[in-house]
Each structure stands twice: as C-alpha cells, then as structure tokens.
Fold each of these.
Amino acid sequence: MQHFIGRHAAAEPGSGDADAGSSPLPDPLPNPLPNPLPSPLAIRGLTVAYHRRPVLWEVAYEAPPRGLIAVVGPNGAGKSTLIKACLGLVPKVAGTVEAFGRPIGEQRRRIGYVPQRESVDWDFPVSALDVVAMGRYGRIGWFRRVSRAHKEAALHALERVGMADFARRQIGQLSGGQQQRVFLARALAQEAQLYFMDEPFAGVDAATEHAILDVLRDLDAAGRTVVCVHHDLQTVGGYFDHVLLMNTRVVAHGRVATTLTPELLARTYGGQSQAFAAALPARQDARP
Amino acid sequence: MELTLLDFLRIDFPALLAAVLACAACALVGNFLVLRRQGLMGDAISHAVLPGIVGGFLVAGTRETLPMMAGALLAAALAGVLIEAVRRLGRLESGAAMGVVFTVMFAAGVVLIERAAASGVDLDADCVLYGQLETILWLEPTGWGSLLDPAALAGLPREVMTLGFVLALCAGLVLLFYKELKITTFDPALASTLGIPAGAFHYGVVLLVAATAIAAFEAVGSILVIAMLICPAAAARMLTDRFAAQLALSVLLGVLAAVLGYGGAAFLPLWLGAEHSLNAAGMIAVASGLILALAVLFGPRHGLVGRRRGLRRVRASATPASSPGPAVLGGEA
C-alpha cells in the first residue's frame, strides 16, 4: 500500500517541502507497479539536522532488489550521516527507514555495519578475533559467553578477508588496511542481508582493496544488498552497479552507467565538479 | 607478641581490608573509564557526588550509608546528564563539559557543608578528601580464630561491609555483562546497531563508578578514589593486550597498591625508627602511582624500555639499501 511514495510524500506537513519537488531529475519514483518483494532499503522523507543545520533534507531512496550501491557526493554531503540515520545512530528530524518492508529497528539481525576505521580506539586490548566475534553478539544474546561455534564463525569470517593468520594479534598492531579487513570480517560474521559500509576503501593498500572487492562481489552473488559510501569517482563504475548521488538532498540515483553523467555530477558537486567529470569515464563499463 | 597480633587484627586488619576492597572495586570499574578514554570522568563523578552526599545526610539527619548513597547516586546521575547536556548544547568537548559540571557541583557541595556546619552538624570536607582509614576498627577479634568466627565477622565495621558489598556488586555486574561492556566500550555504535543500548551502559558505568566512589570515600577519601580509578587500569594496559587479563590484572595491581601502601604507611616508618606512621590513603595513592610508573617503563610490549628494544630490532633488520628507520616504521603503521 505504500508503494507509491514520492520523494516528499512522507515529509512533515509544513516542513518546507515546496521546493523539494522542483529539482529536474530523471524520474526518482520507484516502479509504480506493485512490487512482489519489499525493497531491502526504503528511505522516505528522511531529514537530519545537527544544531539546526540540515545535514540530510527529505532524502527518499528505494534500493533495488539486489546489487552493490555506492553513495557518492562531496565532503559534507551527509553520506555518513545517511548511513548512521538509517541505523538509528543519529536522531531523525523526520522520515522513516524500512528494511525488507519493516521498520529497520525491528530487523537488527539482518543488518550489518562497517563503520569508518577512525571511529574506534585501535589501542583497545582485544585481538582481531575478539573484534570479529563482536559481530556475533547480536546472535549470542544477553549474558551468554561466546561459544566455540561462534568463535569458529568469526575465524571463518577472518579467513574470507585473508586475515586468519592475524586472529590472535592485538588490533593496534595491524596495518590500516588489515584493520579495515577486520572490520569487514566483523560485518561478515553478522551474516546480515543488508550491509552499510562507511568508506571501506578509504586509505587502504592494494591487497586490502582486492580483498574488500572480492567480499563485495561474493555478497552480491549471494543476493545481499550493500550500501557503501564511496569517495573515489574513478572506481565507482568498476566496483558498483548502482549509485546514489547526494548533496544533503538526493540529486539522482540509478544504474551507474546512466546516472554517473557529467551533468548529474556537476549538480552533485556544484562548482568543484569539472575536475571530477574529467576524471570520470575510464572504467565505467567494467561491470556487467 | 599476642598483644601485637591483637593490635594487628583490631586496628590494621580492618583498615587494610577496607583499603584492599576499595582499591579492588575502584580498579575494576576504572577500566571502563580508562578504556573509554574518559579518565576525567572518575574525577568528575567523585567530586560531583558531594552535594548528593551532603544532601542525603541533611535530609536523613544521620550518617547512615543508605541515604548518603542514594543522594550521591542521584547527584552522579544528574552529573552524567548535565555533562552530556553541556557538551551538546554548549558544543564543548567532553573534557571541558566535565570540568564545568563537576567544579560547580563540588562547589555546591561545599556550600551545603558550610550550611550543615552552621547548624551544628559534624561533617567536614577534609574527611571526604582524605578519608579516615585509621579510624576503622574491629573490636571483636580475640585471635586468628576470629577470622573464621561468624559472630566476630558480623562485627566488622560498616565501611568494610559496604565496600565488600560494592565490590561484589561490581564483580557480579562485570561478569554478567562482560560481553556487553566489552562491545559498548570498544565500539558503542556497532553495539547500538546490534540492539545493545550503548547509552544505557554508559550511564550504568557512571552510576557504578559513583556507587564505588561513595563507598570508598568514607574509608579512603576522594583523592585515593581518583588515583585508584585510573592508575591500576592504566598500568594493566601496559602489561597485557587481552581484555579479560586487563580486568584481572588491574584488580591485582589495585590490591597490591593497597597492601604496599598501607604497609608503607603503617609499618615502614616505625621500622625505620620514626615516631609516627604516615597517612595510609596517601601512601596507597603513591604506591599506585609507582606501580603505574614501573609499568610504563618496563611493560613487556608497551613499556618505554621494551619499545626502544623493538625499535632497535626493526632498525637492525632493515636492509642497508632501504630507507632509514622512521620510514620503515611509517610503512608498518
């Protein structure tokens, strides 16, 4: 019944949505035919403000049933905030976020999260395996210890990112890329269906980049949805199927090939777009 | 000989026991401040509870533990909320917010004490700052056997009982919520997405620190409380990279500081021929500081000495053709 939600249908009355519909975009409405399966992620009228300055303004987005999705935009566009608001980590001024047709807060088991590497203290006295096992805590439940089976699941997740040899290593003694892989392994250990990742490729070495990419493709092949904040326009086309261009508002979204155009990038990045647009084409059609 | 044993059991044993229990409890909860990088929170809470202690005392009119504890917990909760509010509304970093809140609340406590003193009540700030370890006496014992005699043990001073209860409470909660405390301390955001309320655990830690601090105040004073919240946990961090070992070691080091400090205060000066013993709480704080200094110097991996040796090894293994030391290390970091 809620399939015909427009980009400001869920906005609060009187919240100034008069200009929200004025941006001349390729039709942002989802397919008007009733969808048999609810979208993995449906964001409606999402507005977030820090100290009264809007960071997200009436963001509406419905993720396609499958595929890897890049969230792209300039610094301060609210990309990380979008992820955090979806996960309930920052308070919403307005709007709803649903995963698989139900409020996202009721779906914790199906959601995985890779925060930015800088968000934690890597000097903390835990091993890589300990950190990955934290991804299982939601399944283990209150008061119970981490059982052998959960430890094995965590070790398996470390294997998938090529970090099994470092399981016992204290996390501060890993390189930046290795730390990023530990975070990714932790998300894998969550065995989620919808993943949010905040700049997993930021500042990592080539080996880590390949490891992350392999994992993303495995997740995609297994039918998982990955929403990934990504900063490198050169690789968006090579790594992702879909892109969400945003700058406080949603500028455009769709398949990378049709959405990552110089005009839309110019609208996303404003004045700084020329250099990005020039750097763009090369690897756009690397993904089928 | 019999006399000194009785003296020990009646005078030194209860004071030492109170110090050991206080230090163990403070060291255990202190981990969650140190590992959250909120060491100042211990300082803030232990000052901010003063108006609560005095308020509880004024309302109840007695020096019973319960009303003072209730008042102090209320004050700690208020301080926790105020710090968060000042941080958000004033857009300050949390250290500044803590500094503002705890000084104001401590000042309010001092004013309240003055008022209480004016109305002829015996309560003074010195006792809060330095404690009164030396006045904790156990009059029941008649010999070693009293340590196993339930009737004599029931006569243990109230401070010791309270501290024993608080230590048991801390240990029980840490065991029960071990996993949850670990994840909310390391990565509160992930904990929240898993349905573990990181905010509630933050306030829970604040309240537990407050309860521990209050129980320990009376016996050992707030200065020792602040030292014991930070030093053992920080020292343990230099000695291990495992979370469980960190908790266990900090408690062990806290107990060690209590024993060494008390011994250094009560017995050492007499053996050295001095007339008076030293202030025990002060010596325990000094001992915990010394332990931390030794750990910083000689910790196996994080200690200064060990780290220098590690550096030398890296330099030695770098081939002559490669870039000099700092660049090699930079690549690893």
Amino acid sequence: MAKHHIEATVNGDDVEFLCETEETLLDVLRDTLHLTGSKEGCASGDCGACSVMLDGRLVCSCLVLGCEVSGRRVETIEGMAKGESLHPLQQQFLEHAALQCGICTPGFIVAGKALLERNPNPTETEIRYWLAGNLCRCTGYDKIVSAVKDAAVAMRKG
Amino acid sequence: MRYEAPKSLQGAVALLAGATGETRVLAGGTDLLVQMRADVVDPDLIVDIKKIPETRAITEDRGGWRIGAAVTGAELKEHPRLKQAWPGVVEAANLIGSTQVQGRATLGGNLCNGSPAADSVPALIAAGALATLAGPDGARDLPVEDVMLGPRKLALRRGEIVVSFWLPPRPPRSSDAYLRFIPRTEMDIAVVGAGVSLTLDNAGTISAARVSLGAVAPKVLLVPEAAHAIVGTRLDVAAQQRLEAAARAACRPIDDKRGTTEFRVDVAAVLTRRAALIALDRARTS
Amino acid sequence: MAENGTNGPSGTNGGYVGTRTIRPDGLDKVTGRARFGADYNLPGQLIGRVLRSPHPHARIVRIDTSKAEALPGVKAVITRDDFADQSSEFIPAGEMLMNYKDVVRNVMAREKALYEGHAVAAVAATSAAIARRALKLIDVTYEVLPHVIDVVEAMRPDAPLLHDDLFTAGVEPKPEKPSNIAKRIEIVLGDIEAGFKKADVIVEREFKTAAVHQGYIEPHAALASVSEDGSTELWCCTQGHFIVRAHCARLLGLDIAKIRVTASEIGGGFGGKTVVYLEPLAIALSRKAKRPVKMVMSREEVFKSSGPTSGATVKVKMGATKDGKFVAGFAELKYQAGAFQGSPVQPGVMCAYAPYDMENVKVIGYDVVSNRPKVAAYRAPGAPISEYAVESVVDEIAKKLGLDPIELRMMNAAREGTKAAYGPKFGPIGLEETLNSIKKTEHWNTPLRKWQGRGVASGFWFNIGGETCASLTINEDGTVSLMVGTPDIGGLRAALTNIAADELGIPYEKVRPIIGDTGSLGFTFLTGGSRSAFSGSMAIVEAAKQIKAELCARACKLWEAKPDQVEFSNGAVRPLGELAEKIKPMTIADFAKVAGKTGGPIGGYGRINAQGAGPSLGTHLVDLEVDPETGRVTILRYTVAQDAGKALHPAYVEGQFQGGAVQGIGWALNEEYIYGADGKLQNAGFLDYRMPVASDVPMIDAIVVEVANPKHPYGVRGVGETPIVPPLGAIANAMEAATGIRFTELPMSPPKVLKALKERSAGGMGAISRPPL
C-alpha cells in the first residue's frame, strides 16, 4: 500500500510528508521532519516526553498516527521560543535548575505551556496533577513545580 | 495497513462490514496504538471514526445527554453543563491516563478496548447509560453493561460500531460518583473501580440507585444487590455495611500484578461505600 | 609565583563556585536542540533490531538466520558466532566488577539464554519495519530448561543451575560442585559474640527487597559507523564513553585507537548506563553491512534486558546497651546478581554499618545468580538495601529503649577518627551535622495526626575518584574552551564552569564547556561513583595551574622579570613590587592576542588519578499518611540533609538530593520487578512499573551541609548517590510510626500494607478505626 501524503502545519510552517499507516506522529516528527526535540521514552503514552500540541490540545505524539494530522496544526518544543526570546517556562526551567539530564524537559515545557494557557495561576496541586503524565526520574519534580509556578507569575505580569 | 477516515456512519459501517482480515476502529488510539507498537495487534485496516459528526458531539437528547463515542475526556471536562448532571461520569472519564491521554481518550474507546478495568465504564453503567450502535442492519441501543462480554470480548456484531452514549434524564436530587483505587495518584490502571448513581426522595431517602464495579471480575459488573442494600435508606451505617457486603459478594477478581484477590475484594467494599457517600452528598446539594 | 587561592564575591570575575549559574548546555535542552542518544542519524544508516529470548532459561541448540538474510532490505544478521569468546577476567565497571567472559555472553547469548529478553541475534535492515520482519524469520531452536527467579531458591542445592562452571568463591574448602552462589564475602571488626554479651537489648529481623530499575527516561541508543579498515565511530548515550570504547575494542577485537566514541547528551543513567548492550551489536552489524547502523531500545527492552539492581534478602541483628550505645552488629546479605555474577553485595556489606561508630561488626554477603537480567549499578549500588535493614533495626532499638531516634544516631554516629568496619579510619565527615540540621527543622517539630507517621534514617556512601582528564584551552580572543571526558547528566558542566571561571579569574560566560570524545582526551573513567564533579574539578585545577604557570613564564620573558616579580590573580598576570609601577598587568585576553609571538597556543591539560574522595553522609526525614482501609500511603512532607563538602553549584546539589529521595520513595512504596511463575517479567513498562509521578510527592526540602573534604582543593565531596540510601529506612520507620507495624518487605505496596493491618487487627491488637470521610 502506498504511503499517505499528508499536509499539515508544524510550528506555523506548512509541511508535507509521506508516512506509513503505522507511523506515529512522533515517528514523523523525529524521523521524517527531523524535529528531534520530542523524545520517545516509552511509546505507550506513559512518560509524556513526546508531548506536543495538536490543534491546541496537549497530546502524546506517540499516541497519534501520522496520517491523522492531515490538515491539522502541530506545535512542538522547537516552536516555543519566539526568535531570540525564550518562553517564560523555558527561562524559568533554566533559572530554577529544573532539569538535570534534560530528556523529559521538552515534554514538561510543552505540557506546562498548555496548563498556563488554561490556568494562569495554578496551585501546586494543580501543577502536579496536570504534569502527572510527564515522568522525570532526575529532579524529584521539586524544581519543575517551582519553575512552572514562577513562569505563571512572569506570564501574569506580562 | 490501510487507514480510512470515513465522514459518515454509513461509510464506516460499509468499510467495516466489507473488510477482510483484521480490522480495528480508531477513536482516541490510546489503547490501539500501544497494542500495535507492542505487536499485540497488527490490523490490515484501521477505521478512524473521528470524522463522523455523530461520534464527536455532546448534545441534549430526550431530556438526557448524548455523548459521541469519540468525544475526548478533555472535552467532557470542559463541557459547561454535563458535569453538573453527571459528575461521576465526567470524573471517571477524566481518570483515564494523563492530561495528554485525556486529549485523546474517548468513552467509546474505553468501552470497546474490552478491559474490565476501564475507568469510565462503571460510571456509565451506574448511570444507566445506553450505547447506541450502528451496523449493517441499522442502529440499535444496548445497555452499556451488556456491551462487554468478557476481557477483549464485545457484544458488537460484525460491522457494528459504538456511535454514542445516551445518559437518561436526571430527576431532582440525583447524582453520581466514581472512585478507583490505584497505588499511585495518577497514571495507573484501576485495581478496583466503583461507580454509584442515586436519587433521593423529598425526605432524603434513597429512592433509586445503581452500583457498578470494575476490575473485580472478567467484565465490569452491574451489582443490583448493592443497589438494593441502600434503596430505602439514608445510607446510615447499617446500610453502608450492607452495601459493602453486597459489593464484596459480587466480586470475582483475579490475583495479578496489580492486586491480590483479597485486596480487590476489600477495597471494592471500601470504594463502593465511599463513592455512595460522595454521590449522596452531591445529590443532597444538587 | 603566587596564586590567588581565594574567591572574591559573586560577580563578574571570580566567586562563581557556590553560586547558581545558568547551565551552559541549558538553552539547547529547553529548546529541544540538544542531541540525545536516539537523535543522531547518518546518511545511509540502517536500523538495527535485537531478537530476544522468550524463555528465562534455555539452551540454544541452533540459530538459523538464512531466511532473515534472504529478506530484501536486510543487510546484516549477527549471532553468537560473530563474537569471539573471552577469557575470564574481572575489570572495574563503575563501582562494581565485571568479567569479559560474562559480558560477551550478556550482549549476545552463547550456550544458553539466561533470562527473558536475553539477546540472541540482531539484524540491520533498510527500515525498522523490515528489521522487525527479519527478526520473525530467524529460527531459533531452544531446549527450554527449568528456571529460578528468587534469590533464596537459587541458593538451594537442587536449584536449576545457570552456569556449570560457577563455584562459590570465598569459601574453604573450595566447593566441588557448581552452584548459583558466585561468591561469599565477609567483613569482621572486633568480636560480635563478645559485643552481644554486653547488650541490654538485641533486635533481630529479616528483610526482603525487590529488584528495581534505574528508570532513566531515555532508552539505550547507539549509532555505529565502521569503515573497511575497521575505523569505528560510535555515538551513544552512556555514562562513560571511554569505558564503552574499552569494552567494544575488547569484544570486537579492535585496537582502541581505531574506535572513536562520542557521548551524546544522556537522558539519565543512575548507574544503568555504565555497561554496554547495544554498542557492540551496532558496531558488529555496521562492520558486516558496511553501512552505519542505528539501534534504539524500546521501553520493554530497557526493563527486560538492561540492568536493574538487586532484590535481596537481608538479616540484621544488632545489640545496644540500655543507654543506647551500639555494641554489636551482624548482617547477612543475599543479593541477586541476575544471570551473571557481580551483584553490588560487596558495597552492600561495606556500607551496612558504615554510618556508626561500632567496635564489633560482622557482615556476610552472598552474590547469587538467577534467571533475571544481569544487574547494573544503581545509585550507591548495594547500599540502600543493607542500610535500609540496619536503619529499620536502629529505629526499633530507639523505640525499645524509649530514645529519640536522632539522639540515638547522634550517640553512635561515625565521626572523624572512627574506624569503619570495612577498613579505613574516617577523616572529617558530616553525619552529626546532618542529624543536627534535621533536628532543627520546623518539620521535625510539627505535630502529626492519627494514621500519620514520621520517620528518620541516615545513609552513607563512599564516593570514588579515579582517572580523569580535563583540558583548558585559551582561544585567540581570550575565551576558554573547557573539555572533560565525563558525560554531564545533571549539571556537571555548570559546576565545572564555575570552577574553571574562578580558577582563571574570567567571566563564567567566557568559558565554554564541552564533553570531549574519546579521541580528544586521555582515558577518563565514567560518570558514576559521584566522581564527575569531584575529580573533574581537581583536573581543572591542575590544568589551570599549568596555564597560570605558563602565563607567568611568558610575562617574565616579556617583562624581563624574575619569577617572584609576577603573580597570577583575578584573570591577569600582575607585576609585583617596583615592576608594578612600570608595567600594566596582562589579562588572559592580552596573552591570547600575542600567543603566537610568545610561544604558541596556550592551554592546560589536567591528567590525574583523583584520590581522596570523601564519603558523603545524609539524614532524611519523612512524614506520611496511611489509608487504613486501602493500605495506600501518601508522602506528606520530606526533608533531606546531606554533607556536600562544598557545593560547587548548590541548585544541582539540591537536585541530586531531591531526585535521589524521590527514587527512594518509589523503591520503598511501589516499584518492583514482578515475575510470573513462567519466569517472565510482567510489568515491563512505565504503566505497571510505577515510578513516582509529580502528584505522588511533595516538595523535597534540601539542606546542604558543608563539612569540607580536606583532600579536595575546594572541599568537594561527591553527592549524587547518598540521597537514595536513607529513604527506604526513613519511610519504613515512618510506616511503623503511623501504623505500629514494622514492615520488613519492600515495596510497601497497598496490598501488603492492608494485609498487615488486617492481620494485626485479627490478632486482637485493636480494631482499625475508620478515618472520617
């Protein structure tokens, strides 16, 4: 069977790609579009390292087929910083030392952005439950929670 | 592996009915994609039902609510009024996986995955929900408790899909609740799940109830004995004890990596009581 | 030459050590640009996949690869026949030992498959789909053998035997029959029989812990490219690319110089990436296919085929006088090694009583093989298990004697001059300081409610040094390139840049650190043993010393000065005395401009075997709550105090404390390898291997105690491993406080907790009251 020809928007850019049915959006992002910021930690939706936004909705890109994104809008970690300026979450992750190895970081930042867009002033508990699908084995989550809180403050100040 | 995303029910049914080889319906994909990656299934045809309008809508219908089988958990949560009528159903759907999974996971997929531990199913059964099916012979409704026959085994006929769920009208002073037990706070499969829906009369006595248990038998159970134990009571301590006993008696769990038989029975009793108390509290204030 | 040995205030020049600088590699990690193991690709690369044994124990009668080889798109298939056998030789791997005879069998099964997931063959094909299809075409004939999973069962004389040439070492006379007990070890200090006679209270308990995985989020990945003459390039995620190079050279019969290994950014290791799995396979496949080969493990493969750490059975018997002095300690440890010998029982034995000043100690350890994946190092390998058992018994002694558990530990704490049971006399160590810090916290003094409990436990880890290189190169514009050979897993580059900037007296931003490949530096031992910041900083001090000496020498030539007329301080060579009136100081940038005219490029190269790693001790405090109706445990509050010697970068030191504590919480409460009667792992995924998620844990308060290590120029001690040692004991002790039950089996998962509560209730020790809803 021929590959699917898909047109979609990734980080605001029009993209076209070919994919097999069984290829996931994560496979397409990493192997075809060479956007390797989204990571594969489990391929089963249990670690969140592949988190992306699909039409404004936070999803695990390992749980979406590439052929499902036809005509849709995908946003990845690579599209978070605008030109020279980092997203406040990126800045706060750096300042709080909220990453150690950094493999989970793109997923946390994408997921954190989705939270702050819906809830500009989340409590610690809300942050923790929202991010429960993002595994981090290095930090114990402490500095990640602090970074998200402070990013929320920074974003509220504008 | 073929992928089709029909835009109509007829189209989906025709594809499924006419398919040769292994076929899978794709809603949220949160189970299907994992099974494909693990080589558990290797379908020849995938039919994505998300482009079919009937599967994607939440509408008021005959005094109740109709929820498309491919509506996501996140969409259920964000619906302005559904949560007031059926808080237990919404909270159950929202316990499936992470925020990310909520962006994809659906009630239809949760039911049709055929797992006795599916979180939304006990809540739907307690709610008295009907599943509306479409197939080559037309549409039909089945009570949700009759859809699943056993692990990975459904009552669906060849070519049939679950289109939507219908939640019946809510009398005053009614509410529901769903609780599940997992070792962590998130991200686990239910070791036990308990859904309770009830209605109070003017005096605050339970006039109707439905109780459902997940992960304690080969399929999600409707437990009429548990409902009988509390109907006509105000859920006093004696009624709670009868409720627990009925829940225990209904359990036929297995020992597995997620919990022992003994543990599941004990916790099923506890969760049923706790869920009933929450539903009662909600019904009083609804 | 005089040197500026002190640090100025935090600011532009100097004083970075001890401050929370932004990590130099951070931008790439928050933008997705950083390249981890699976992010490397080469033109023309093939995809490699591994065929793994479905049986926990089976003789491999025959492997027929002909059908797979005939599949279009398959470019190479390898099996045991592609690796020469190795003689028995033990070599250091992290803090453990390994044997090439076993390593060659672990990377590719030879006579037998010894665990479910053991590699049996591998293919390289033009796509992942073809590689997967090819695996299904490899026909392996197995003769299935009886298996053994449990450590105690594996020790029985009639247990299925994994290796018929394995005879227990360390026993006299040498056994005549082979067994699954690879080794017996023993350490003795004083006379425990005499000690127990002096005891007013003796507590004896047996404990059991489950095998747990390091749980790094990044699966193992390797990309190899071998040319016709055997020149090999390898990119992989590893804690030690020099070690990978050594192993691959040995296993593939290549000259070390022909292999160049580049460590990618690494997505967590915790000890689990100190050994090789895919790397030699990728090289062998690439050598055969003459094309680059990329291999990445699935999560299931990570769980089934890479090293967890041991599960164990531990007996502890301790005696104390009525006023609390520990007079004797005995322990017997039986550790799972997995399919090949080499569990971390040795450090387990050595650490068991290390936090305490005791005259009479005897610890016996057994290294036991069974049909599980070969264990790999995991953060303070072996220590959490034995110290959990001892800390539980210490808590019980405190209860029996009615003593405060912190006071009891304080009374018996090892301190400077204490002779450890495992040999050395301690220099300055910080256990008492951590106990004091915990005692002073508001946390320690906050009241608790019913079904809540508070626990405290201490922990010890040695830390290591070892072979380390670091280079500092002054670039033409006066900026500095810093290169080390230890992969950075948790902020190492930030910590080392702090040191380099301070040593040279230049702004932090002017130093750019990189992790050099194996061709760029001399042999550098791996990131492990809490050694990378400790020994890397020592090598940088050495390299900086060379640069300062060189600059001073060049200044002497330029200024026609004598060596005692110049000094290096604050980023410049400064003329002293009367010379200072005539000549302006020359900064590093000034020298860089005239480097060509004054003797050529300027650089320093620290090549050291770092000695004097100081142990780090810590004390953890935890509050938790038990749901008496379901056995579910919630961690309410957590405080860590640990001795860092000197925190080069406090935020990353705290991060080690916090991360280790949460890994320990997972180990204590929910993580475990669950096997079926068929000897197969049932929970090889993140869904059922239950590592803590963000909503499972509270904020982790971190108190950095600094008792300087006199053997390090800045006083540094390794900090990475100790934090995982105390949590198991602290949580078990808190569980006892909450429930009155001493839990002796990990994990303390809800079914176990509820069962214990019910049994106590049935035993007439009082009904369990229901909490208010």
